[in-house]
Structure formats: C-alpha cells, structure tokens
C-alpha cells in the first residue's frame, strides 16, 4: 500500500524537527559541561612552587604532603641560587616562588623588568655577623677581611649591621640600599669583599668576619647558627619572605589554598621551630 505524498512530507517534517531538537539539546548539554570540565582540569593541574635550597625546605615538604591529602597536587622545585627562581617564574616554568623579601623583589623587578606581585608573607629570618677567628668585635685587627652579600639589597643589610656593630659609619639616613660607596668612616680599614649570599656561610674559614644567614650556616655546617656576634632584629617586616606570583595568578585558588595550609599547619610550624629555633618569626 502506497503512503500518500502529503503523509510522507509530514513524516519527514516531524523526523527532522525531532532530530534537530535532540541535536540542540545535546549541544547545549555539552556547552554546559565544558566549562565545568575545564575548571576541574585547572584545579587538578600540578601547582609548581620554586624555592631556594635551605632548611626551610622540610617545612615546605610537609605542606606539600598535607596539600596532597587535601586533593591538591604540588611539585616543589629547589634552586641553588637567588636569580633562577624569578627567571623561572617569568618563563612560567613555576607558578609561584617563595625565597625573597620585598626589598629583594623590588630590586629584581627593577633589574630584570619582571612584572610580579607579592601576595602573602611567610617567615622573617635573622641575619648575623659570624666569625671563627674572633669572639668580640674589638678583637678584629686593622685591615681584616669582612664578607658581605654581593646583591644590592642584602649587601646593604650587611653594611647596616656592620654600622650597628660600630665597625663602619655610613652616610646619614641611608637604608638597605647602602653600598660600599656610602661608607664615610672605616677606622679599622676593613677590606670588604662581596660574595653571593648563599656562599657567605662557606667563607668563614677564609675571612675574619662575614655576614651570615642562619639557614645557610646550618645547611653548610660551618658553625653554630646561634653563634653570631650580632644579629639584626625580627621587627622589620620588610624582610619577611614573600609568596610571589605573576599578576594573573594573584587569585589562583590552588596557590591560596597552599599558602593557607602552610600558614595554619601545626606540623609546618613545628618543622620551622626545629630548623630555626628563635632565629625566625612568622609574619602572617
């Protein structure tokens, strides 16, 4: 039996309309699902954190383990110098770095042309003047060799500490940006040499006095980190280590979550206490 032509036309109109409706519904469902899947992929991606090698690494590793238990995958990347972590952040090889204070960051931005922001403070570390050859500053001989950091910011911090020790006098009103050119009095005619900050701890056998960082002193094992002849204080929060990111990552929920874990974990705090004792303070 042949179907009338009008019936055939109605059949195809209904079928086409049904197929179109199903296709539209499927497309709409996919459109709804796509952003969610992309968001999940972003949340599930590995967070890469760069830091400098120091005893603080153990506290960071604890935070990494706790983050994993909370569903956040984190990779900790150690650098042996203070230049590569910023280059790696600029190149997007890492998502955040944690090793520098505000004065160091501002100098790095100026010199490297970086567009970075500090989003949260970490710990403040003391620095000190260390020696394996003298016990008091008045034992320092004329012409003695003194080592300070060679970067503009930490070198200035070392010079300020030498001034506090009464060994030199700087231009009035000078701050952490001091250089050796700002020395106006040097009664002992000290020979001031500048070394990479991370290498100062290993210079103690070769110089009479050295600016030192307890974390690097402990790592090198060259002397007791608590044995400095003079420490600077922990009151200046400008020297707090910062969590630093590119501007577009300032509100990355993965980074914010990790920082919160680090700041609120009792196990992290215990690891910091074990590593640094009274040589550090928290700035959050």
TrEMBL record:
It comes from the Bacteria. Residues 1-41 form the signal peptide. It is found in: Membrane. GO terms for cellular component: membrane. It is a lipid-anchor. InterPro entries: Lipoprotein_NlpA (IPR004872). SUPFAM superfamilies: Periplasmic binding protein-like II. Keywords: Lipoprotein, Membrane, Palmitate, Signal. Its main location: membrane. PANTHER family: D-METHIONINE-BINDING LIPOPROTEIN METQ, D-METHIONINE-BINDING LIPOPROTEIN METQ-RELATED. Belongs to the nlpA lipoprotein family. This is Lipoprotein. It comes from Paraburkholderia fynbosensis.
